[in-house]
Amino acid sequence: MATLTTSSAWADVRLTPEEERIAAEETLRFLKEVSDEAGRALAEKSEEAARSLHRVWDFSSFTPATIPFLIATLGAGEVRIVLHGGLVKMEETGIPALWRVQLGETQSFVLALIPPSVVAMASRGEAELKIPESAPEGVFAAPAILEELREALSKADTTRWSTKPGHMVEMTRQPLAPGDQAYLAGVLGLGDIDIRLTGFADSRIMSTKVRGIWHTQILNHAGKGLLDAYVVGLIPAEVPATPEELEDTVARCKEFADVVEADRARGAHG
Fold it and tell me: Residue 195 in contact with residue 79, Cβ under 8 Å?
């Protein structure tokens, strides 16, 4: 089974001149469709139009040789998401709001601020945070942290994701005892969503078994911890693309199309 991985370099693509010609044509057509869809959502000038944006292109709709050409052209973005321990994998491409998604042997491109499957999975957690009546020895700050999370959860709207950051409880600022972290992890449990973000630092965001509570950790590129926190919200605000980024979606489609057209003009593709 093919595995979804970031395209490393154009050097990995080996196509005949005729395959390159077809791949370039299909890529240009695809980029126009993506741009048109994003443009229509932008034209409505409403957050709901952006949030409802959803278009899927199955890999089977392209000539097989076009796929490696497309993947190399689009590149990879900063967000990668794994559901169900690897059953579903997805990564944002170099075009904001355009995702490459793999479910088993089926792969597709999905245009959405965040793939609906992530929202559906995030919505399945337990509705309430149940805190044990007593904590074991070696636990100090965890009960108060759980109470704060429960209070924040009761005030949060976990029926839809938001572009605004949710309530955060930062562990690095808590007077933690040796048993606190393990106790928190045991009470909150582990959900089915694992998110990685790359950029100036490396972030890992994991869902808990409680809907709307996430564990996030940020490390710098040297591996030093910068943040360890629990965040409240259906989906952490930094994960979905924002409605404003759809302007970048249209712009990036044009940039990529211009590169492909320039290569065609100089005879690089067929």
Answer: yes
- For the chain, give me the number of helices (H) and strands (E)? 7, 10
Residue 233 tokens, joined = 């919200």
Strand (E) positions, the chain? Answer: 55-58, 79-83, 88-92, 98-103, 106-111, 168-170, 193-197, 202-207, 213-219, 225-232
Sign of CA dihedral 233, 235, 237, 242: negative
Q: Record the tokens describing residue 113, joined without a space.
A: 């601020």
Q: What's 138's DSSP letter? A: T
Q: What is the pLDDT of residues 34-88, one digit of tens each?
A: 999 999 999 999 999 999 999 999 999 999 999 999 999 999 999 999 999 999 9
Question: Looking at the DSSP assignment, which residues form a beta bridge with residue 169?
Answer: 230
Which residue bears the tokens 């048109």?
36
Q: What is the dihedral of CA 261, 267, 268, 270, to 10 degrees?
A: 100
Given strand 193-197, what is the order of strands in its sheet? 55-58, 106-111, 98-103, 88-92, 79-83, 193-197, 202-207, 213-219, 225-232, 168-170
Residue type, 212: G
Q: Give the pLDDT confidence of 91-119 residue by residue, as tens digits.
A: 999 999 999 999 988 999 999 999 999 99
